[in-house]
Amino acid sequence: MLDHTLYRKVTAAFRSRFQDSPSLVVRAPGRVNLIGEHTDYNDGFVLPVAVDRAAWLAVSPREDSWSTVRAIDMKNDEQSFPVDQVPSSDGGWADYPKGVVWAFLEQGLKPVGINAVLTSDVPVAAGMSSSAALEVAFAYAWDQLSDFGMSMPDLALLCQRAENQYVGVNCGIMDQMISACGKAGHAMMLDTRTLERAYFSMPEGIAIVVADSMVRRALTGSEYNVRRAQCEEAVAILQEHLSDVAALRDVTVEQLLQFEEMLPEVVYRRARHVVTENARVLEVSRALYEGHLAYVGELLIEGHRSLRDDYEVSIPELDTLVEAAVEVDGCYGARLTGAGFGGCIIALVDEGAVTDVEAHLGKVYEAKHGTAPTVYMTRPDNGVAKIA
Ligand code: GLA
């Protein structure tokens, strides 16, 4: 890790800006989600993977209660703000560290002042959790330097609060939990109600291919909130008949069918996605464990259809990529990953077929949409850690 390009880049930039070596370098990864989309705000299950793209933070503590943070990728934009009172938001990238400060203060913890330089190779707004990586990197660094000794799940919850209440994005807990708790070589099955985790090793010889449509999410915030509200509506109606339903997590496919007539048509379809998707997470986890890759692939494809038709968060570009990927021999399955409306798909592919998949995706996508997708292989990596 010490010879990683971004490690060298971020430490050199820190030295040149602050005339000293950083006392800590932290790496927090982005993620792809194998399956379990839009289930995390329904108390459901998810199966994400921390990836080999990450936010890197070089940081040192200061004597005063002030912090200066600089982002190499944002033309070295630099911001300074207090850490003993709530910093004011300006809507930019620094709202993530500022939100983390806000969340620590809310918990009665006073973080130390820091000097920090940040870089990241997680693509922004591509559905790979670049913002969670950033929050988790800062929260981890502050936790270390301030000796708070927080657990990883608590750190993830703190970051989610920062994003929900300070930044103003109503996300679930998946992205922060996988950035904090990911494990190299493994997918992490997370119960978002209890935060219990089980790790499933990725089979040998299988690659996760990411294809980025390069369509950047439009309207995600509002559409995301509309989906959340529709799920809540479904729960409110079902609760009139099923007293022990606290979230869609508690509803079975049979119960949903039984009460179909009570729900508005759209709300029924949204709920059907969530309920069937929860079941798919459990099935995929089991099939991964048992090495039934063909079945894993089928479930991924089914999951994509459900997101496209019932949850309506896909776009034609993502459908093209999924359809093209599964045409190639050696591809088990593919689906959009993340919130949708743009961003990336993932495909599970035999290592020997990766080049074919890349070539085919490029050809089909360009013919249909006139631009090239960015396609690359990614590996399950570790969650946040101190690198030096
Ligand atoms: C975004 C959110 C997550 C999750 C996914 C959809 O990535 O941040 O909490 O809801 O969308 O599965």
Please characterize this protein's 3D structure.
The chain is an alpha+beta fold. The protein has a domain at 4-202 and 382-386: Ribosomal Protein S5, domain 2. It has helices at residues 5-18, 95-106, 130-145, 152-167, 174-181, 220-239, 253-258, 265-290, 293-309, 316-326, 354-369, and strands spanning 24-33, 45-46, 48-61, 66-71, 77-82, 114-120, 186-191, 197-201, 206-212, 331-337, 344-350, 374-378, 385-386. The model has no long low-confidence stretch (mean pLDDT 97). The structure holds alpha-D-galactopyranose. Alpha-D-galactopyranose is lined by residues 37-38, 40-41, 171-172, 174-175, 338-339.
Bound small-molecule species: alpha-D-galactopyranose
Number of strands: 13
Q: Describe the largest sheet.
A: 6 strands, mixed
Under CATH at level 1, the class of the domain at 4-202 and 382-386 stands as Alpha Beta
The end-to-end span amounts to 9 Å
Helix and strand run = HEEEEEHEHHHEEEHHHHHEEHEE
- Put simply, the count of helices is 11
State Rg. Answer: 21 Å
Shape: globular
Question: Within the CATH hierarchy, at the fold level, what is the topology of the domain at 4-202 and 382-386?
Answer: Ribosomal Protein S5, domain 2
